[in-house]
Amino acid sequence: MNGAVLVAIVAAIGNLLQGWDNATIAGSVLYIKREFNLESEPTIEGLIVAMSLIGATLITTCSGALADWLGRRPLMIISSVLYFISGLVMLWSPNVYVLLFARLLDGFGVGLAVTLVPVYISETAPPEIRGSLNTLPQFTGSGGMFMSYCMVFGMSLTKTPSWRLMLGILSVPSLVYFVLAILFLPESPRWLVSKGRMLEAKQVLQRLRGREDVSGEMALLVEGLGVGGETTFEEYIIGPGNDLMDEHDLSGEKDLIKLYAPEEGLSWVARPVTGQSTVGLVSRHGSMASKSGLIDPLVTLFGSVHEKFPETGSMRSMLFPHFGSMFSVGGNQPRQEEWDEESLARDGEDYVSDAAAGDSDDNLQSPLISRQTTSMDKDLGPPPHGSLSSMQHGSIAQGNAGEPVGSMGIGGGWQLAWKWSEREGSDGKKEGGFKRIYLHQEGVPGSRRGSLVSIPGGDVPADGEFIQAAALVSQPALYSAELMNQQPVGPAMVHPSETAAKGPSWSVLFEPGVKHALAVGVGIQILQQFSGINGVLYYTPQILEEAGVGVLLSNIGISSASASLLISALTTLLMLPSIAVAMRLMDISGRRSLLLTTIPILILSLIILVVGSLVDMGKVVNASISTVSVVLYFCTFVMGFGPVPNILCAEIFPTRVRGLCIAICALTFWIGDIIVTYSLPVMLKSIGLAGVFGMYAVVCVISWVFVYMKVPETKGMPLEVITEFFSVGAKQAAAIKNN
Question: Which of 131, 204, 220, 682 is most exposed, with minimal Cβ within 10 Å?
Fold first, then answer.
């Protein structure tokens, strides 16, 4: 995973530049006002600071579509170029209008970085450490602010501080970012797959994961191209089948699936757990609150998953750890086929089988399935109609009723499998259904293992070697609906390039799962902006000044301007350890848990600030209480409400429209930022400091309720599995609403 960590660190430099720029303009505007005589023109002064916000908002309106069209990497490189050019123009700036233009260019760079860095990290990071790596932008942003405040503070101590040099130095780290991006940032493998560039995506994944065999994750990325399919939950009892089933005829057990591993002829038997609803996880573990509509069924669904599934800390499958490799993650078979857009030129027979009744699928080759001779093939003899050859670098599972399953590890303890089931239709012709399965062992206590379902013809082993597994079943992205009407023999599949050629579509935004995800993403971005961070930042220098810090610094010969810069630097420095703790907890406690834990502390801090401004307890006591509250607020905010909204928004949308949806959420962020920033002085005059902080506390209460009712836990889950869960949860919520 070192490759993914390095890539995330380099990408997060874009947020370091954003933090650097925010701190630099806050310090240099004091000197800009003096040179251009702006004391009597507050509008121009406000524009100098706000132009970056305006630029970020403008570029965000089109950044999502550009990211889905051109890719993530080119736009991050363009962001570094915009930072660099704006730094040079600010270094020159002969008048205020050139400075405003430079700030606009800088805003373009900020907007691209803030929008795309979380998306890029989410798309390249393994599920197990995705949360930690996506907290890096928050850490580097605060680190950039600290370094910039220190630099500006040092310059402020000189006889003639130069604001042009303060702003122009931005070009140096921007150039470093540009070089590192060119050298170390590959294109997002998910974006490459969405464009049908399979070979490039495979090479990038091999580099990011540090291993040759990435077939499981490649297949997962292809499956991520599908949006809006019918998804159901099924549950299986899986156990060793060699000893139990060899003496029994399986032909009469149509609900049994026999699973084969490629090692030493090992096999297991899987049987669906009957009597479950389509979302069995929720029906058995859902709370009464979800049924009454108080809690979103999606939240209950995700919560049930995390309750039932054991914690996973590696890419290795958790299934059958004592049986060996049931679902092979690493294959020893030679590679016979590479995916790429050029393979579209191949004959259609390579991936669409004939419908003639006498044909078998011996000549069937889909991009996902390679015909390879294995020991299992020899054991099974000629394959029946609809059977699959072994999955590329994976394993094969053959059901007695024509239900083969191939499976590969996709991270977070999840497995990707496919199942082809065959039945006779009313006209006597064979009909088949090709299904994709996301499979995960459930956290069933050992005493219950093997007791839920008994395999016919054999007693359940006393040592509990049977495992209960949950399966998320839906139609594969490559299983074309048009092909179903042609009655193909076997699972005829289109090439990934054909699926990718569909591209992003605005209509996808109206799919129930995508709409549900947008409601969560936009809602949490709005609440974050109105939770008080801008107000507390605005008021911090005044609070610390009242606490006597300014007096202490002036006594040792530091000017008031320099003192305010040093205070801001110290405040930012306090955030860094808290963000480091959040990085550690993001993939252990989870995003939802961090929000539910930290938001009450924000509420408490704001209430104390309200009390401190209303009750006179003495100047020293009031200042001390306010200082502690501000520090507590900052440290808690950057642990939860600071990084989590961007992390969540980068995880919950389908690959095909992820850039577009992220842009909508980012646009909400910037508009909220502008509203809060410019309404704050007005509100301070109208309702006072206590009223402002009281309003922020109310918003934080609303935020906690929103998170509790609407925001699911996404830690450790592959992005494609998360979007499938949103699809299921949205449809269940609609069903509950209709009933």
Answer: 682
The tens digit of pLDDT for each residue in 174-201 reads 999 999 999 999 999 999 998 889 999 9
Is there a contact between 151 and 606 (Cβ–Cβ < 8 Å)? no
CA distance 279 to 660: 29
CB contact set of 148 (below 8 Å; sequence gap of 6+): 19, 20, 21, 22, 23, 24, 27
Total residue count of the chain as it appears in this document: 739
pLDDT tens by residue, 319-361: 333 333 333 333 333 333 444 444 444 333 333 333 333 333 3
| Residue that has been written with the tokens 């929720």 in this structure | 282
Q: Which residues contact 359 (CB under 8 A, 6 or more apart)?
A: 353, 489
pLDDT for res 372: 30
3-class SS string, 460-528? CCCCCCCEEEEEEEECCCCCCHHHHCCCCCCCCCCCHHHHHCCCCCHHHHHCHHHHHHHHHHHHHHHHH
| Tokens representing residue 421 in the block | 């089931």
Query: Where on the phi/psi map is residue 532: left (φ > 0), alpha (ψ -120 to 50), or beta?
Result: left
Parts of the chain with a pLDDT under 70: 1, 228-229, 240-269, 274-293, 306-408, 419-434, 442-465, 478-505, 541-554
CA–CA gap between residue 717 and residue 652 (Å, rounded): 11
| DSSP single-letter state for residue 361 | S
Scan for tokens 């874009």, then name that residue: 14
pTM of the model: 0.80
Q: In 156-210, which ranges are E strands?
A: none
Q: Which of 375, 381, 376, 358 has the alpha carbon at shortest distance from 430?
A: 358
